[in-house]
Amino acid sequence: MSKRRSAFEPKWIGLLACGLVVIFASQATADYAAAVLADNPLGYWRFNDAADSGTAVNSGTAGDELDGEYIDVERVPGPQEVDGRKTTGFEADNMAIRMEDFDTYVAVDASPMNDVESDPGFTFEGWVSADPREGNRVGLWGQNDVPEFGFIQPFRIQLWTPGGGNVNWDFTEDDIEDESWFHIAATSSFEETLLYINGEFVQAGPGQPNETFGFSDFTFNIGGGGVYDPTGNQFFGNIDEVAIWTERVLTEEEIQAHFEAAFGDADPCAPLNDGSLTDPTARAAYVHDVLGTWMGDSNKDGEFNSGDLVAVFTAGEYEDGVPENSSWATGDWNGDKDFDSSDLVVAFSDGGFEMGPRPEGQAVPEPTSLAMFLSAMLIGLLSVSRRQRK
């Protein structure tokens, strides 16, 4: 007995998708930034703002509460090569800040390091290219009288916190060359304080014995303006991609992954498939702000359109009865690892179907009644098809 042919073989799905196109008359963020943002930093200053902007926009979860102000810094290209490896994981026009004179820095008019608990602890991370240093107490970034980070001596990097939780690393020119980019990260908790250079652990120190890392009336600065002291501590050189976590200690593997992502080794869609982004709001924010696209963009071309519908239905995982076998590329848009009607609702509700690339910084549009009608129609037809196959 011949098997009844489904009304929704892939070619019919394609025709339906094309029909939706008739009815409805960016490029992803670089690998390094995607890897950092996937770990939800509180503060993340990329310094890629418009040349005439005075605001160092915070891309971290605290949003504009931690926006900074450019104080007479120069804007220069960010890391392009580290130890002979090209940093293809940054945008071609990635920018950094340069401090050549005194009183040049980025000022954040907030105190994010106040009352940070030692359990779980915090993480500092960024990229640095330092000019030759002559004095002591040269600040990279931090908040005076609470966590302070920089060159405490010309060839000693220090993370200091009140009451303990310190690490000091003495290095040579063979370890870090002047005027050469390197990745740096430091973590501190009640257990230990650790320093990493270019993704590799280099030094450990004692943990913070107190419940918190302290409180101060000072604000957070990058590159000067007071890091070890109320004012001054000027750094000369370049800084880029500064990130802070105040409720998380990144693991060595996570820090290594961030470093490697600078060389184009990270899959920016990995957080959509590994179970780490299941909250609807966080998942949508990642798709919009990190990948720069719409919910439903399975083929990762920067748009949600008929091509994505053809791709996911051709994969054949729609309500296939196999638990947790789907990915972003095969229709799992809501993060439950299955492709079913709820994913179609999520994608069409995002409002991007056949809207073209998602403009940077665009607010999420309200889904049109027609979009929701078509979503419901598609789900209904698929349901009929499944009943016919039984």
Give a quick rundown of the structure.
With 390 residues, this protein is an alpha+beta fold.
What does this structure look like?
Strands 1, 4, 7, 9, 14, 15, 16 and 18 form an eight-stranded antiparallel beta sheet that branches. The chain starts with 9 loop residues before the first helix and ends with a helix. The model is unreliable at 1-15 and 17-28 (pLDDT under 50). The chain has eight helices and 18 strands. Helix 2 (31-37) runs antiparallel to helix 3 (252-261) and helix 7 packs antiparallel against helix 8. The protein folds into two domains: 10-28 and 270-389, no CATH class; 40-261, Jelly Rolls (Sandwich). It is an alpha+beta fold and 390 residues long. The radius of gyration is 24 Å and the shape is elongated. A hairpin with a 4-residue loop joins strand 10 (138-143) and strand 11 (148-153).
